[in-house]
Amino acid sequence: MKKLLVVSLLLVLSLVAFSRVTITMTAGAVGTELNVLYEQLDKFMRANPDIKVSVMPMPNSSTERHDLYVTYLASGEKEPTVLMLDVIWPAEFAPYLEDVTADKDYFELDKFIPGTVKSGTVNGKIVAVPWFTDAGILYYRKDLLDKYGFKNPPKTWDELVKMAQTITAKEKNMYGFVWQGARYEGLVCDFMEFLISFGGDVIDDAGNVVVNSKAGVNALQFMVDLIYKTKVSPQAVTTYMEEEARRTFQNGQAVFMRNWPYAWALVNDPKESKIAGKVGVAPLPAGPAGRSAATLGGWMLGINKNATDEEKAAAKKLVKFLTSYDQQLYKAINASQNPTMMDVYKDPELKKVAPFMVDLYGMFVNAEPRPRTAKYSEISDTMQKYIHAALTQQTTPQKAMEDMAKELTQVLAGR
Ligand code: GLC
Q1: Kind and range of the H or E run holding 70
Q2: Which residues lie with the beta carbon below 6 Å from any ligand 1 atom?
Q3: Residue 244 to residues 104, 159, 185, 247, 394: CA-CA distances in angstroms?
Q4: What global pTM score does this model have?
Q5: 10 CA to centre of ligand 1 in angstroms
Q6: Which of 79, 180, 189, 295 has the smallest number of CB atoms closer than 10 Å to its CB?
Q7: Nearest CA to ligand 1 atom 12
Q8: pLDDT tens, 63-118?
């Protein structure tokens, strides 16, 4: 009798294994996001024993990830099944992504922040589901600002420079301000924030390149000065991506940091950080144009068009699970990545763990998108090249902006 039971159990198990569909998913690893994803996938696979999800970890640099995707997708492969997509990519990758417009209700997209849904909509078709949203924010050392009599975080870039200079003149081994200055996508994000707060822009509503303005040159000059003149930023920022800035800040080596929300979970974790509990978050300072600007970032989930029907069905279940209320809340609490579903911001749990997400909700919703075009990656490469050349003093801000504008015009005209 016992033997029979064991045999039938084995039979059932092998049938499940036999009918199990395996899908692959790409994932990033900034901060705690990869560990949090593994926890979520365990839960998903327990609830869906007929689906196996295998993770393909990707480089942290959005630019490097983009180039890998170009190789995967252009080759017509059916893998990865589910792609983690930066908000700037849907227009470019739309031809390779499954159209999920008909599944709008299944994914409950009417509950999402409308701007995030817009990022995944190309020519009226939804090709990606918003997973988490991002905006640039200012992290500051509350304890040090208090110690030197600064009651509030800086409201303007000039104030930030003054506070940083005052504090680093007295504190040993401290930088004033760390940010993302390496030659990759993150540099464009940081530059846009300076540019817009100085009153400039990259492309106007009519599609003209307007980056080479007085405001544009001044913004880039200000960034260069942070390194060589006001000296509140170390020269090393020209090699920093998000994680380098985060590590420097959480080691107690900087007064201010520009980063995305994910850093919050780690800088406040006493096991990880020397400054847990001493950190405040504020909107980025305003520039001479009197306004502050945060670049809109974030990631979405898209499904590979070349996957089989069975794989696509499993992928949809996975996307639905990961973007559900409970999983967005879990991710927001454990990886501090901002929800895209509006109601999650009303959850008292979120307010307790990441109060800034709730307090700065309006800022997250109104963050500044990067140019929305299928040519975005070429635009970005051009911008990265000239901004970085100015930051490393290979050219002047004036010349960098002139050359950038010329090349951007060519890129938009199709060269
Ligand atoms: C973050 C943002 C993403 C941006 C990237 C740049 O991951 O969410 O949109 O492109 O940073 O480094």
Answers
A1: helix 62-74
A2: 62, 86-87, 134, 185-186, 189, 242, 260, 297-299
A3: 38, 24, 15, 5, 23
A4: 0.95
A5: 47
A6: 79
A7: 186
A8: 999 999 999 998 999 999 999 999 999 999 999 999 999 999 999 999 999 999 99
